[in-house]
Write a structure and sequence with these properties.
Blueprint lengths: L22 E2 L8 E5 L5 E7 L4 E4 L13 H6 L1 E4 L12 E10 L19 E5 L9 E3 L11 E6 L2 E4 L5 E4 L4 E8 L1 H8 L7 E5 L17 E6 L2 E11 L14 E5 L4 H7 L5 E2 L1 H5 L10 E6 L2 E6 L7 E8 L7 E6 L3 E5 L5 E10 L2 E6 L3 E4 L2
Parallel strand pairs: 8-15, 8-17
Antiparallel strand pairs: 1-12, 2-3, 2-5, 3-4, 4-7, 5-6, 6-7, 9-12, 9-14, 10-11, 12-13, 13-16, 14-15, 15-16, 18-19, 19-22, 20-21, 20-23, 23-24, 23-25
The structure holds arginine (ARG).
The site of arginine (ARG) has 18 residues, from strand 15.
Length: 375
């Protein structure tokens, strides 16, 4: 039986609500977001589509209860594409059959022989037939390291709370999405010591106060950075939690992700048409870094607007105007928060943009302008 391996084992102080404290997202916004389900169609890991025929996930999704890599269950698994829901599957969900599974040759989950059970936690799954959903771009091996504080997006159908037995409980039927910020290697090593290798990156909810995290069942899914109008996958959900804190959503212990850029060679070796980018490739030129990047997801009447943090900003102003008239333009002070969500009546249609400000007025530059529509 395939088990999501947990590196984390203690009773939480409070129930933390994965994804911990997420809001709903949709595969219409994240068309490459897919999941692995067992022969009974039970979701057990997240994954991302990286070409017409290949899916990226975590190696530990294929480890059995005896800490051995076991591809037999994996071979009977299905890849579910185009489904916002894990259960029941969306009516237009597509089921992909598993061809070969390639685990990183240096991954070793066997405590008897392994130096580091979580290192090289990356696997590729080949579909037996090509699919037509948009694959996600991947952070190139030549990209500079992501700075601490960089805003990221995490998503999955994993557990949303941690129960008395230390395990994640209450998996989500719906895709949930949340923000985390990159935690520097030094800060992450302070928590996990030399368990952290160069093949990992860490992220937590350092800026927002609210505890967001990935949890059991989210493993293998992507951590992304938005870049212009694209998302770039930078991590793969791997592990988190310490022996003295909750398994997930511990404000003291960041989530740990396999680093896509550090492991890019392994991906490129097997998936010749995977798309690697550096973040500058997609952000389109001038003085980037000063301007926030805005993205919108709409799920039914629930709208989630989020933006990337700008260095030096003390807050953000949200501008909106009716679509298609463009006038009048209204402004809302968001304070330091990096997202806002809520319900809007059906038929709502707006242009939306965000601008950062600091103590001296406004920092230069408006974000990308996006159109928000509720059907
Ligand atoms: N190992 C888990 C899984 O199999 C993911 C845990 C992530 N934990 C965290 N605290 N971020 O689904």
């Amino acid at each position: 039986m395939i088990e999501a391996k947990e590196a984390d084992q203690q009773v939480p102080e409070d129930n933390v609500s994965a994804i911990i404290n997420g809001s709903s997202g949709s595969v219409s916004t994240y068309p490459w977001m897919v999941f692995l389900a067992d022969a009974f169609e039970e979701q057990y890991c997240g994954a991302s589509l990286i070409s017409e025929t290949w899916v990226l996930t975590a190696a530990h999704c294929f480890v059995n209860g005896d800490d051995q890599i076991d591809l037999e269950e994996g071979a009977e698994s299905i890849i579910v594409l185009n489904s916002d829901t894990a259960s029941p599957l969306a009516s237009d969900a597509e089921i992909g059959q598993v061809g070969q599974i390639v685990i990183h040759p240096s991954y070793n989950p066997d405590p008897a022989t392994s130096d580091n059970l979580d290192d090289f936690d990356i696997a590729l799954v080949e579909l037996t037939a090509a699919v037509s959903f948009q694959p996600v771009q991947l952070l190139s091996g030549s990209a500079p390291a992501l700075a601490g504080g960089t805003e990221t997006l995490i998503m999955g159908w994993g557990t949303t709370a941690v129960g008395e037995d230390n395990q994640g409980i209450d998996p989500s039927d719906d895709l949930l999405v949340a923000n985390q910020q990159i935690v520097s290697v030094a800060d992450c090593e302070n928590i996990y010591g030399d368990g952290i290798t160069e093949n990992m990156i860490c992220a937590g909810a350092v800026e927002e106060g609210g505890t967001t995290d990935t949890c059991q069942g989210d493993s293998g899914g992507p951590m992304l950075v938005s870049s212009g109008s694209n998302y770039v996958q930078v991590g793969i959900v791997s592990f988190g939690g310490t022996e003295t804190g909750p398994a997930c959503g511990d404000p003291e212990a960041p989530g740990v992700y396999a680093s896509v850029s550090a492991l890019a060679d392994f991906i490129a070796e097997h998936v010749s048409d995977a798309q690697f980018v550096t973040l500058d490739d997609t952000s389109g030129g001038d003085d980037s870094g000063d301007v926030p990047v805005l993205s919108i997801s709409v799920d039914g009447s629930l709208v989630n607007i989020q933006w990337t943090a700008v260095a030096g900003a003390t807050g953000y102003t949200l501008y909106y105007a009716p679509y298609p008239d463009q006038e009048p333009i209204s402004a809302l002070d968001m304070g330091p928060q990096l997202s806002i969500s809520g319900e809007l009546p059906s038929g709502s249609a707006f242009y939306v943009a965000i601008e950062a400000y600091d103590g001296n007025g406004s920092l230069p530059g408006l974000s990308n302008v996006e159109v928000l529509m509720v059907q």
